[in-house]
Design brief:
This protein is of the alpha/beta class. 38% of the residues lie in helices and 18% in strands. The chain has ten helices and eight strands. An eight-stranded mixed beta sheet has the order 1-2-4-3-5-6-7-8, sandwiched between helices. Strand 1 and strand 2 form a beta hairpin. The longest helix has 18 residues. The relative contact order is 0.15.
């Protein structure tokens, strides 16, 4: 058994306990509607507001079948080097424009880039590949709307979508300039690494992962589906420069290492950093936990550097 009392510091434990007070560990046993209500309330409790000068416009991408809500964050004098397309986390069943509102606003404020948050369709109402299809539609919209390079970013489920878009758009004339993946689920080997060592980690367990995957797919076996599991892609060549930031105490952490190794083996640029003692979902702790604060600065710096078309790792 992993001794989390040694790995996790007091600040992070306080964050975990506060999170559990709003979003109990057994929330996956509730109905989907109840889970969403609990999750949304928790996100509101952790909201840090907007940095000074950042504004947001909520609009939608029009597609032939349905609109995709988006929120565009801007500073008074946007940095024109790139724009950021952001996909939120939430296990493909939770979250939206409001759940990650302050995170996107802060990412905009600290980099100067325009950030576009995508409210992709959620399961179980919309099974896979609905979320992926919306992510691709958002990329196509960005490629048409913006002349500046596109940088992909996402956390957890959103990291999965960002990576899937990177794989699918390698031949695109406006292929992404880079991607920053924050504790992403990429479909790694469940029999080894963090999936075993941290199967019962605080904030996210393997049982949770199985639940989310089952809901997303409608219970169908989608083994080998590259749009579901980017690590199922045997070809990792020509992917954009990639920075992966994962949490040590998280069953998904090994996905960052595995993805880094794949990209590097294909002569690409990839850097993986595992944050010591942190847990899944720590973005909400970036103002209260020292380790999370440092990690968010690492994420902001990665977005800024990749957006300029640079590689420093």
């Amino acid at each position: 058994m992993t001794d989390y009392k040694k790995l996790i510091d007091a600040e992070t434990w306080a964050f975990i306990e506060r999170t559990n007070s709003y979003y109990p560990p057994d929330t996956i046993d509730y109905t989907i509607d109840q889970q969403r209500e609990i999750y949304d309330r928790m996100c509101r409790e952790f909201s840090a507001g907007y940095p000074q000068g950042v504004t947001a416009e909520t609009t939608a991408i029009v597609t032939p079948s349905h609109p995709i809500p988006i929120r565009i964050y801007r500073t008074p004098a946007p940095e024109a080097a790139a724009m950021v397309l952001y996909f939120h986390g939430g296990g493909f069943i939770l979250g939206g424009l409001d759940s990650h509102d302050d995170i996107c606003a802060e990412l905009c404020g600290r980099t100067g880039y325009e950030v576009v948050s995508v409210d992709y369709r959620l399961a179980p109402e919309h099974l896979h590949p609905a979320a992926f299809d919306d992510a691709i539609s958002a990329f196509e919209w960005a490629a048409t709307t913006y002349k500046r390079p596109i940088l992909l970013c996402g956390d957890s489920a959103g990291g999965n979508l960002a990576a899937a878009v990177s794989h699918a758009t390698r031949g695109h004339a406006r292929r992404p300039i880079g991607q920053v993946l924050i504790y992403p689920g990429l479909g790694g080997d469940r029999t080894q690494g963090s999936y075993v060592t941290h199967a019962e980690a605080p904030m996210l367990t393997v049982r949770d992962l199985d639940f989310y995957t089952n809901i997303r797919t409608g219970g169908k076996d989608r083994t080998g589906d590259l749009t579901l599991s980017p690590l199922a892609d045997a070809d990792s060549a020509n992917l954009p420069p990639t920075v992966l930031i994962t949490a040590q105490c998280d069953p998904l952490s090994s996905d960052g290492e595995a993805y880094r190794d794949r990209v590097v083996a294909a002569d690409g640029h990839a850097f993986w950093f595992e944050e010591p003692g942190l847990v899944h979902g720590y973005l909400r702790a970036r103002h209260t936990v020292g380790r999370a604060r440092s990690s968010f600065t690492r994420i902001v710096d990665a977005v800024a550097v990749l957006g300029r078309g640079e590689w420093i790792w």
